[in-house]
């Protein structure tokens, strides 16, 4: 289940985001302090083009997805889960979060397309995106943690998603 994030979720989001496995797969690789995270939270709360949702699994907060409206019906997303809290259930949680977030983007936000920027080395996420219907649009290089890293931009259209579900 997805629900809007609240002030009560802020520290959990930061803890999940700072997990070493999450940082290795992210564009921001340093450990995020409370002050930096609070500034991020205040900026997203004041920005109607951004939506922060908490993913709950078995009634407990277990991950987060952030949607950013990038125009013309397209939203970009990023997401991560509670690596420690989910343990061996992490793969199933990723899959469930992916599906629920896609439905939310198309059915609630009214997006026509979802875009995702993923480090090329993050093959598990790229494979998951491919399984649900994302297609690679382009590759580019971006500085991450002081080094050049290859990034894959994938997109999924609402039409492709709905056709794959029927």
TrEMBL record:
It comes from the Bacteria. It holds the Pfam family Acetyltransf_3. Keywords: Transferase. InterPro entries: Acyl_CoA_acyltransferase, GNAT_dom. Transmembrane segments: none annotated. PROSITE patterns: GNAT (PS51186). GO terms for molecular function: acyltransferase activity, transferring groups other than amino-acyl groups. PANTHER family: GNAT-FAMILY ACETYLTRANSFERASE, SPERMIDINE N(1)-ACETYLTRANSFERASE. This is GCN5 family acetyltransferase.
